[in-house]
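ASSEMBLY PREDICTION REQUEST
Request ID: AP-0331
Submitted by: J.K., bench scientist
Number of chains: two
Total residues: 280
Priority: normal
Notes: Please return the full assembly, not individual chains.
Input sequences:
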Amino acid sequence: MLLRRFAENDLFSSLKDMQRIQNQLDRLLSASASSGSLEFPPTNVWTSEEGAIVRSEIPGIEPERVDISLVNNTLTIRGSRGEEVLKEGQSCHRQERESGHFTRTLQLPFNVNSDRVEARFCNGVLEITLPRAEAEKPRKISVVTE
Amino acid sequence: MPSQLMDAKKQEVVSENGSEQTRSRKQYSPRTDIFESHDQLLLLADMPGVKQEGIDITLEQNVLTIRGKVETPNFPGYSLAYTEYGVGDFERVFALSNEIDRDGIQATVKNGVLKLILPKSKASLPRKINVQTE
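STATUS: Completed
Returned structure:
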C-alpha cells in the first residue's frame, strides 16, 4: 500500500491515486461477482421415475473437449473453453464471453445404470440422460383382496 | 462501478423505454465479443440452443440486430426439478460506427456460437498517402 506524504500542491496526484485505487477495487469486486455468484456451466435437471436428464449450456466448446464421468451417483462435467486471441492489428471492443477451465459436479438422488448413460451435444447444449438403476426404480405394489 | 458489469447469469433483454414485452417468451441478450481490425469487425455471440435456421440477422442503416430462436426442451414424463438458466430467445442490437460492406457480411454458427464477419466498405477504409520527396 502506498502511504505517501503529500504537499499541498500534490493534491492532483493524490486524486489520481484515489482514482487508481477505486479502479482496482472495482476490478476486484467485479471479478468476485462474476466468478462467485453462479457456477459454470448453468445446468437444468429434469427427473422422473425413469431417471434424470441434465442439460448444460456450454456454447463454443468442441464436444471432444468435454469430459463426463460418473462415480456412483455423482456426475462430473469437465472441460475448457479457449479464449479468442487477439490477432495482430486487432483491437477488442467488448469481451463478455467467458473462457477457461470448468468443473461441475452434480449429486443425483439415485444410483444410475451407468451402462445406459447417453450424452449428446447439440448447438452448444450438452444433454446427458441418466437412467435410474433397475433395482432402485420405484415398484408398484398391488393390493390383493382376500 | 463499471457499467458493463456482467452477472454470470443470462441477461434478460430490457427495452430502452422500460416498456414490457408483448411476447410470452423470455428474451435474453447473448454475451458477445467484438474485435476490430483495420478492414473488418468480428462479432462472436453465445447463443446456446440456437439452430442455424433459427438465426435472424438484419442490418438497417447501421443498426445490426441479431436474433436467435430457441426451442423449449420437452421431455414427456419428466418434470423440471432444478433450474439455473432460463430458456428463451436471444436478441441484441448493436449500432455500428463504420460503414459496412453489406454484400460481404459472412455469418456462421457453430456449437451455439454465432460468428459474424462484417467487412468495412472500401470507402471507409483508412487510406495511406505516400509522401514523395521532390
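REVIEWER COMMENTS: The CA atoms of residues 14 and 20 of chain B lie 8 Å apart.
SIGN-OFF: pending second reviewer
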